[in-house]
Amino acid sequence: MKTRAAVAFEAKKPLEIVELDLEGPRAGEVLVEIKATGVCHTDAYTLDGLDSEGIFPSILGHEGAGVVVEVGPGVTSVAAGDHVIPLYTPECRQCKSCLSRKTNLCTAIRATQGKGLMPDGTSRFSYKGQAIAHYMGCSTFSNYTVLPEIAVAKIRKDAPFDKACYVGCGVTTGVGAVVNTAKVEPGANCVVFGLGGIGLNVIQGLKMVGADMIVGVDINPSKEEWGRRFGMTHFVNPKDHGDIVAHLVELTGGGADYTFDCTGNTTVMRQALEACHRGWGESVIIGVAEAGKEIATRPFQLVTGRVWRGSAFGGARGRTDTPRIVDWYMDGKIEIDPMITHTLPLERINEAFDLMHAGESIRSVVVF
Ligand code: NAD
Ligand code: AHE
Ligand code: ZN
Predict the structure, then answer these.
(1) Residues forming the active site
(2) Residue 237's pLDDT band (cuts 50, 70, 90)
(3) Ligand 3 centre and the CA of 351: distance in Å?
């Protein structure tokens, strides 16, 4: 069949809208009509050539929602007509990682996914006879995409696609980092670095679990209003302080119980660790750093009890947890609508990247 998609032909070049060929689902795969997709900073990072796994040409996008159109042989958990969210972190429930109950990082198909291929080692997309790579196992910047059965979460049918898509990455990543990774307790003092599409979801997660102090840190002063809208209690612009760590340690009465990096900047990651309370403070890295970057701190910071950890997809087990997060949204426990600042047709998808780089959007959603 044919599908309309925004293709990343080259790094650092705008996406091009073209009609591609898409092969139908093979065994264990499903064909999904994508109805809406968010544009995450990770898509921009890959398009900018900063991803060590970046492949071109490819179809980016990993924050979608849509409808199952057709299933391949052997598929039992979803059927045509089901509403689904594609999962860049699948959940096979059978691999060593899934069975460990210690991680959400299913390893069943990670190797081929990182190469831009379906689990059988081939691509379903082609353009003028040339294979086009999948991205993060999702490729939601295409109107139709093929996904492994283990990489789709079935969600309720009354959830609007143009909001539910955000659960496919940003909402789950932010709220999940609080609930699943850090397991923040009521009354905790917390600092969130970077108040974008992820950081604001960390803030609303912190509010939901009853954190006491929720400090937001951003170099963009317009983010103060956004942070307060979702529960931030204090705002700090690093540009107003010589020693940001000393300021945050003083503000939080000796250091934070939990800090979250939602910037992807390795200097900020160090600040986030060092702003933690001696003896127990935990810092969660969510931001994705560009290829070649490394983090550093004095080992003494860890010797004296601070903990560094990371969180991918908010520690969520996709098929199990994302339908529940959609329920939280539908039940009014978390907000999504105000964070979707821009809704655009596919033809204008490059504007979503411009808005993000200009700091003018929280989330842009492309609707098909
Ligand atoms: P975004 O562009 O919407 O927001 C980033 C925010 O960080 C902006 O408000 C920006 O002003 C702020 N910022 C930039 N430099 C800063 C600095 N030095 N100090 C303080 N604030 C600073 O991006 P996003 O979509 O929210 O994504 C944030 C990060 O999370 C990205 O690195 C993205 O790749 C990553 N991410 C990780 C996961 C995961 O599973 N771990 C999932 C989604 C996104
Ligand atoms: N490909 C990069 C790593 C990118 C990365 O860390 N991705 C996050 C999700 S970001 C979503 O917006 C993630 O879940 N990683 C786990 C995984 O298995 O990829 C690199 O450095 O090579
Ligand atoms: Zn993302």
Answers:
(1) 40-42, 62-63, 92, 95, 98, 106, 110, 169, 363
(2) very high
(3) 17
Could you list which residues have their CB under 5 Å from ion ligand 3?
40, 42, 169
**Domains along the chain with CATH numbers:** 2-168+336-367 (3.90.180.10), 174-312 (3.40.50.720)
Contacts 24+ apart (CB under 8 A), 332-339: 333/208, 334/171, 334/175, 334/201, 334/204, 334/205, 334/208, 335/204, 335/230, 336/163, 336/166, 336/167, 336/171, 337/163, 338/229, 339/166, 339/170, 339/197, 339/200, 339/201, 339/363
Q: Cis before residue 57, ω within 30 degrees of 0?
A: yes
ipTM computed for the complex: 0.99
pTM: 0.98
Average pLDDT over residues 11-17: 98
| 295-340 per-position pLDDT tens digit | 999 999 999 999 999 999 999 999 999 999 999 999 999 999 999 9
Strand order in the sheet with 16-22: 2-7, 16-22, 125-127, 130-132
- Inter-residue contact 296 to 55 (CB < 8 Å): no
